[in-house]
Protein 1
Amino acid sequence: MVSPPEFRKIAHEFVDWMADYLEQVEQYPVKSPVTPGAILRQLPEHPPSAGEPMETLFADFQRIIMPGITHWQSPNFFAYFNANSSYPSLLAEMLTATLGTQCMIWETSPAAAELEERVMDWLGQMLGLPAGFVGVIHDTASTATLCALLTAREVATQFAVNREGLTGGEKLRVYCSEETHSSIEKAGKIMGIGKENVVKIATDPSLAMYAARLRAAIAQDGEDGFIPMAVVATLGTTSTTAVDPLPEIADVCGTHKLWLHVDAAHAGTALLLPEFRWMIEGISGVDSFVFNPHKWMFTNFDCTAYFVKNVELLVRTFEILPEYLKTNPLGDVKNYRDWGIPLGRRFRALKLWFVIRSFGVRGLQEKVRSHISWAQALSKEIIAHDAFELMAPAPFNLVCFRYRPAGDENTLDDLNQRLLTNLNKSGKVYLTHTRIRGCYALRMCIGQTSTTPEHVKKAWNFIQATAAEMELTS
Ligand code: PLP
């Protein structure tokens, strides 16, 4: 057990460690080099029967856990999409953990409910969403998308599935592009329509959904006895950040009265910049919209912003009121337990409030704009390079490319796989890969809070040098 005076002393030491860690994070290998099982083997099979001193625990944290950590906050982290953090967010998380509130209903922490209402309103304004959109914070985009599709299912069936369950004859269908994130298919499985009824629409050369094919697929399915219920449009696909054409898709949804959900998990952050608002032309035809401040908006994982046009439909889908949750507030309040899946909710609004106030909208815009401009500059260098190839348009901060020296085209996938392995093994950078029209490509996402143009330059030089060295030694 930790006594109050011990807590004060140890917490100060931890804060020093945290500050040192973040200042020195570049010195760690970005991707953890440990082999599978290496951490597990060091952990006793049975829990301790007697309590252990915090010094021992902290020593084990440093000895056992730290080598198995991949350093997401490193400025040389260019993998996946970021999960960037920042000092204001981290400080708020310290307060959140200290309060230990459970924010399921207004009464269990009125400030949490009302702050959430206000910051989501701010966020909607910051992204340029229409005034009628109302927001709620979820843990992840996967959860928010599931909520969107569950609501769409209930709207399509006049809430019959909520009442009676799926009877087997519904033949409901959801549409998205072949580049859509796997969370859409997962939602299809969870919500009971089956992944085969998540229809993947072909994409154009920029890897964005062909709206005409969407229209044709929906019309054909209607004739074949299916019930189209929703379309998911992606603004910034996971593989290459392609942007589906929202106005055309909204038009199709309008014609067929389908729920339109927008997944802008990563690239939604770019809407902070007026010059990217072209992405949400057609937003008036959208029913729900999700983006992740925990990806590229300097807010610790987890924090997903989910917006809906019609809150009543959302709440009707999820509301449930057992006796033990009945409260008698004095006025009109928001009980967010009915706005999503879990009853219990973390106090996530605090970190968002801290981030928005500490950076200011202008501060956020400057950082995001910088990331995009560095990615654009890198794309140009790749295009100009004889032995590298840009593999997809790079509208935001993600650059997809491959090494393509003169020679056997059939070995390019293997060559690039080996290049990625060598880069990541070095510990100096961490990148990930995708396949674009079947070809293996490296993905470099420039969105870490402490990344500078020098980090990007150093990484690009290192990529070129590593590739050249592989040529010499092969
Ligand atoms: N949608 C897109 C476009 C994504 O890129 C991702 C994750 O990278 C997700 C959804 C899932 O996000 P989350 O981990 O918040 O569920």
Note: The chain has a mean pLDDT of 95.
Protein 2
Amino acid sequence: MKISVIGCGYLGAVHAASMAELGHQVLGIDVDEAKVASLQRGVAPFHEPGFDDLLVKNAQRLYFTTDMAAAADAKVHFIAVGTPQSADGSADMTYVNAAIEGLIPYLSPGDLVVGKSTVPVGTAQRLSESVVSSGAILMWNPEFLREGFAVEDTLSPDRLVYGLPEGESGDAALAILDSVYELILAKQTPRLVMNFATAELVKVAANSFLATKISFINAMAEIAEVTGANVTELADAIGHDSRIGRRFLNAGIGFGGGCLPKDIRGFVARAEELGVGQSLDFLRSVDAINLRRRARVVDVVIEELGALAGKKIAVWGLAFKPDSDDIRDSPALDIVENLARAGARVIAADPQASGPARKRIEHAGLASSVTLTDDHHESARGVDAIVVATEWNVFCEEDPTAIAPLVSNKLVIDGRNTLDSKAWKAAGFTYRGMGRS
Ligand code: UGA
């Protein structure tokens, strides 16, 4: 099958390469010339495990361009552009609208347009009229991939969700997408068929649930901090109840990234527009708890060190999660900035994200108080404290006895509750976790 993928960010580029891996001829289209040139050379423009290999392995079936006219050759067109957060919290639909408008002149009757972007409920219905007037069919097929596992999640998803129009065109869309995903469906992947609105809601509901789970455990961390309880032991204990489950109950500095934070805010904004804002009032609390965690870490540092002016602090982690160089809404980067604003000299280390972080630190006017490096050993030299903000394996597995001689004061603040506290204490460190007395 000839496929176009419009939008080549984390979602679109991985989707394009994965569709090629399934044996399709794939054309990736993006307005960003540098990104397209990099992908066309077989070089991933971002860090995502396994993605480079997929690009190289499938180079014969993959082509990247900035020219939307090239989409005329394809029968199935995936819309995978971003829906960033607008100033009022709602999802900015500029790129989705532009992608559909740009694509329409190149559609042929019987083509299938498949929306993958995360959109406010009602979007597919709104866009379908213009797609249908060109003789094509529109459907929505939300994506649930996690950064760091994007390739695996695309090729072996937990489930496939098809949001279909009613009637014959829905049947036709289903048959076409089934043939695109034939090899995935052959692995007994559950495929759930529903209407547009349900499919759109499934995506934001899933991200809202995950965000709620994380903020729930972080709220418990706040209680644990004033009662002498230990939130990790609490999470282990409640997680044994299979109705609750242990996953996404890791307390710490909270969630970030390009999805969870903006999706809950976009969902709240959409519910307000629909007159049911009250239904999602709890998501405002989820957001507020999450943002408090970033401030809490700075408070813990101040509790231990007093005023931060003149203090030197290493922050381990800049990316919003390990195995990614994505710094969008990263709690780690916010903490770096807040420590620097409080007067500290910060040396921040991340194996992948120090390059992407540099621009933001410069933009924030903090280049003179923040040093960025890939090397966490280097960052620890002569510091008064180490703050672990992203749980990269290299940090979690670090031998504290190798770090002890480097620092000038043995204090470690484990923002992700990920270190072996006993080993760090045995090496002479004062250990502070999150949600523990
Ligand atoms: C999230 C969803 O998990 C995906 O299913 C979804 O497809 C994606 O958004 C999207 O909408 O595109 P992702 O943003 O890659 O994926 O990251 P997550 O693995 O969900 O982690 C989000 C944040 O939560 C990270 O900052 C992570 O450190 C934090 N987190 C996660 C916690 O603080 N505690 C936990 O227990 C789990």
Note: The mean pLDDT is 97.
Protein 3
Amino acid sequence: MKYQLPEGFIVGASQAAWQTEGWTAKKHDNYVDYMYKQAPNRWFDGIGPTIACDFYNRYKEDIALMPQVGLQANRFSIDWSRFIEDFETATVNEEGAQFYDNVVDEMLAKGVEPMICLEHWELPYELYEKYGGYASKHVIELYVKYAEQVFKRYSGRVKHFWTFNEPGVIPELCFLHGNWAPSFVEPKTAFAWNYGKVVATAKAVKLFREGNYEGKIGTILNLGTVYARSNHPRDLEAKRMAELFNFRFYMDSLVHGIVPQELIEILAENDCALEITAEETAIIAENTIEILGINYYQPGRVKARETQLAHTFFHPDQYFEHYDMQGKRMNPHRGWEIYPKALYDLAKTVQEEYKNIEWMIMENGMGVEGEEKYKNEDLQIQDDYRIEFFAEHLAWLLRAVEEGSNCSGYLVWNFMDNISPYNALKNRYGLVEMDLTQDRARRIKKSGEWFYQMSTTREFELATPLDPELK
Ligand code: BG6
């Protein structure tokens, strides 16, 4: 079956500063640099962000490849710790900023729309060490000052600004699960960071509007549609609670301007009270985002808890547990379920429950280990699995668009193989290979050629039907 991209629908890719740039000319560490320095042995093969893709030095070569794989847009993050010299005064580091100027100009010259994300976990480490990161109201003010410098410098040349990428990931994995550095379990800190990022977003939106900056401003959330094991009221309640924590906290706050009252109360009862001021409540209500970015990789499946949590600290998992559905399709390399229809369901939720706000897929992709073994005689990786992955997800998304969803783009993860937190270079996602064995040589994969075809002809074929036949 053939699918066509609607007029104006953008296709592209995303990347993050810390995952691509490397440490050349960096004067300050960001939070992920700290994660690596704290325990390099925990990163796959000990590889961290030190060189990454060396994008800082090779950006021209890389941006030249972007149109060759059909990117109409590329979302990248600015590393706050590179862009700003003095975090208190938000004095720009001219050398760092010049690099981003060059990246923006180069993308424009190559016909690729640059989209800027202000933070993909690159909080300057000093602001964590000194103030505790986003739990601090002072850090939120510093973030807004930094945002202002970015808006001033790039508004006009850049049309999409994103306040955060996946704001909930560091709070959850670092302070709730204790998995990532500093490997502390501090539930109150985790929720304070989440709330802090909501306030920071609302304040940045306010500033953006008051400054009449050109373009749109939004946030990028990692959302997976949550499915209940069954329609039993207890399973449905488990789903409702999983959504409250994992979906509605950010969605209600940023799209409706209301932090869910039920969540505020649960947190207060469990020693995780949010420090909310009346002024912040008003700012959140009046400065909702203009566009929503969604990163989608896998759905959430939950069931009612069968055992009580032995945790002595508060954790949302006390209201639900993961449901391991039989027969689910898996990406074994990443251990994530593949379920493209969730994109359609997600689109419906945004359409029906979130004002049909304009939104885009800002990440969707498949991380695969050992891709070298799929190379043909011309050394090109034959990643048909990735083509199928993209085509299926995009087809479900387009079905929702046809039915009125206000989705205006599909950006994949990612343009070129890069570093992941802890998984480092184990699983590769790129349309372009980065070959570590040959001076990080870049080679377009088969999926890159497919993406180019899809983007330039504005159509693609899907061999497998979206609705499977009964056999
Ligand atoms: C997203 C992040 O959660 O998933 C990216 O925004 C990340 O930074 C991507 O790389 C894929 O996850 P991973 O852990 O396989 O790299």
Note: The chain has a mean pLDDT of 97.
